[in-house]
Design a protein that fits this description.
Blueprint (H helix, E strand, L loop, with lengths): L2 E5 L2 H5 L7 H4 E5 L2 H9 L5 E2 L6 H13 L14 E2 L2 E2 L6 H25 L3 E5 H8 L8 E5 L11 E8 L2 E8 H15 L15 E4 L7 H9 L4 E4 L9 H9 L3 E2 L2 H5 L3 H18 L3 H7 L1 E2 L2 E2 L1 H32 L4 E4 L5 H10 L5 E4 L25 E4 L2 H9 L8 E3 L22 E6 L11 H20 L3 E5 L7 H12 L5 E2 L4 H5 L4 E6 L7 H8 L4 E5 L8 H4 L4 E4 L5 H9 L1 H18 L6 H11 L2
Length: 626
């Protein structure tokens, strides 16, 4: 049997001596799209390791990642890490943990399937991959020839991608998490010309909003001000006054920001003391090797050693941040008199700490943040809407969401509030712009290839690239103006998507951080690209609100019957379909376009309550709370 070589990035590939033609005597496997592309460009024959995973495998990986989200619950020393009634281990963002687990489990299973199918005598790979291979029982008799490689112990949200423009010049760079936090505090000091800081002695009976962007919820703040309700903002991630518009809104509606520096100004000794104690206890926590080995198990593979370095590093790097957050939350909740706490998420560290420490003493409302629509076959993916982990009131956008929660998730109807979507009120007031010329314009909205589902792989990237080329060729044939709006996430797949468009046509404008409403105002049709197929982008709903004929192209082999699909409010196709005729009809067939708009109105009446007045209705609900 041939020996095998396994690579996952450019560094690995550089370790292979291709001059000696080692690849002629060995089979090469890639673990991801990046390594595949590099070898393709080098004309090196190889196999895509991900292709060995079945749909059942991918589902198993996803379900295991979900089951391990709270891996620490039975740890014998867990209680020793409590501070202010909250356990330090529980603060880590569950979505970050999910991404970390999903990546490790996927890699582990690919390696396991490679070994099962090829039964190699020898494997050439990095020391990092050797850790994975050695956790696989079948690998005991395999020789692993490993080359040195440093482990990257940072994870997705340890670095932030910053993009902005100075005039026409785009500026892009990365900042470490701690650096960004320092810059945020410095920026907030100089940006606040007048006092916008929260004072618990002056601003009682307010509503505490966790990690809200004022530019998205201006109408809600306007309605709350009319009712003389104090608006309190706690933003530990992205500043509430991140741009000039946000500053203007905060000042206009007299919003008050909770200032970490002010609250913690005389608590340095307390923070330092508890941080030192927790550091010692955390080291002891990680010494329970037997527990950790027996917890991180997948298909009889004990993979703790593949995840321990990054997990330990995350907690070490963020311990000071977590202690400060706990002290801040304890101070604010003990001294404040809030009528309600409103959040968009519960898994983020700010939300997690505030809601756990509050423990339902003050009313909590989870306001739906996206176009949530699920069918039974993919209900496992609703985990990202956090229904299962929230025990107070959930404010949904309409009756479709309400019925799903009540019938499928068995949520008590008394806990469900139908309010509509406050951040979309503005969409119902905006009118389409009058075009200066007759050429039709298509807005392409490509969703990023964020692998939250475990379903995306090298094939997804290849199909995505092929689909973009196909769409551009069709639209150019019809002499259509093309504009592109990327998702505002900092995910690196956005760079891949942008590059594909630019490689095919440098003249296509590609927008990233600008509000989508600006592009929707001029679009005659929308083509959305969906790489997962197990959910709906909110951008689709926004297109429908603007009465724009919309097509969703799914890069998968199955189309799920979401309500907007069943009700024929959108055209839906697979990337493998013949799409030239459907795109032509989307643009030029008035019967098709009119039917889509007609069906859209029916869908919106089912999905969205209080269109255009959701902020007013939600403000009235908040006003009714004591």
């Amino acid at each position: 049997m041939k020996n095998i070589i396994i690579v996952e990035d450019s560094y690995d590939i550089k370790q292979i001596d291709f001059k000696q033609n080692v690849h002629d005597q060995n089979e090469i496997f890639t673990l991801n799209f990046d390594s595949h592309i590099i070898l393709e460009e080098m004309n090196i024959q190889h196999k895509i390791g991900e292709s060995l995973l079945s749909m059942e495998d991918k589902t198993k990986v996803f379900d295991t990642a979900i089951s391990l989200r709270k891996w620490y619950e039975k740890h014998p020393h867990l209680k020793e890490l409590e501070f202010k009634g909250i356990n330090i281990i529980e603060i880590f963002d569950l979505n970050e943990m999910h991404q970390l687990l999903l990546g490790r489990l996927t890699k582990l299973l690919i390696l396991k399937r490679i070994i099962e199918k090829n039964k190699p005598q020898k494997i050439f790979a990095s020391e990092i991959l050797k850790q994975f291979i050695e956790s696989i029982p079948l690998s005991q008799d395999i020789i692993v020839d490993a080359f040195p490689k440093l482990m990257k112990n940072s994870i997705f949200f340890d670095k932030y991608h910053i993009s902005y423009k100075i005039g026409p010049l785009p500026i892009s760079f990365q900042l470490k998490r701690k650096t960004l936090s320092k810059m945020k505090k410095w920026y907030e000091r100089i940006a606040t010309i007048q006092n916008v800081w929260y004072d618990e002695n002056k601003h009682d009976k307010g509503v505490l909003f966790l990690e809200f962007d004022p530019t998205r919820y201006e109408e809600l703040f306007k309605q709350l001000k009319k009712l003389n309700i104090n608006i309190i903002l706690l933003n530990q991630r992205k500043s509430a006054i991140w741009n000039s518009k946000a500053i203007s809104i905060v000042k206009k509606y007299n919003c008050k920001l909770i200032n970490e520096e002010s609250v913690l100004s005389n608590k340095d000794n307390e923070i330092s003391q508890y941080q030192n104690k927790l550091e010692i206890k955390l080291k002891k926590f990680w010494t329970e090797i037997e527990f950790l080995d027996n917890t991180f198990v997948f298909e009889e593979c004990r993979f703790w050693k593949t995840i321990k370095d990054v997990l330990m590093q995350v907690y070490s790097n963020r311990l000071e941040e977590y202690v400060k957050l706990l002290v801040l939350a304890n101070h604010v909740l003990n001294r404040a008199d809030f009528r309600c706490i409103v959040s968009l998420y519960i898994t983020g560290e700010t939300e997690n700490v505030i809601l756990k420490m509050n423990n339902n003493k003050i009313s909590n409302i989870l306001l739906e943040h996206g176009y949530a629509n699920f069918v039974d076959d993919i209900s496992r993916f609703d985990i990202f809407h956090m229904y299962d982990g929230f025990k107070d009131k959930i404010a949904v956008w309409g009756k479709i969401q309400k019925e799903y929660l009540r019938n499928f998730r068995k949520v008590d109807e008394k806990r469900i509030l139908q309010v509509g979507s406050p951040r979309h009120d503005i969409f119902f007031d905006v009118k389409k712009e009058t075009k200066k010329h007759s050429t039709k314009q298509v807005l392409i909205i490509p969703s990023p290839i964020v692998n939250y589902s475990g379903l995306t792989d090298t094939e997804t990237f290849l199909r995505y690239e092929k689909l973009i080329k196909k769409i551009i060729q069709i639209l150019q044939k019809f002499e259509i103006d093309i504009i592109v709006k990327l998702h505002p996430t900092q995910d690196p797949s956005n760079d891949f998507i942008r590059n594909v468009f630019k490689q095919n046509d440098k003249t296509i404008p590609v927008f990233h951080t600008t509000p989508i409403l600006e592009q929707l105002k001029t679009a005659d049709a929308v083509i959305h690209i969906e790489p997962h197929g197990v959910g709906l982008s909110t951008a689709i709903l926004e297109s429908l609100i603007m009465n724009i004929p919309t097509m969703n192209i799914v890069i998968k082999n199955e189309i799920f019957q979401f309500d907007c699909v069943r009700e024929k409010a959108i055209l839906t196709h697979l990337d493998s379909d013949y799409i030239e005729k459907p795109i032509f009809e989307l643009l030029f067939n008035e019967n098709v376009r009119n039917n889509l708009i007609k069906n859209t109105k029916n869908h919106l009446s089912n999905y969205l309550v209080n269109p255009g007045i959701a902020s007013k209705k939600f403000a009235e609900i908040l006003n009714s709370l004591n």
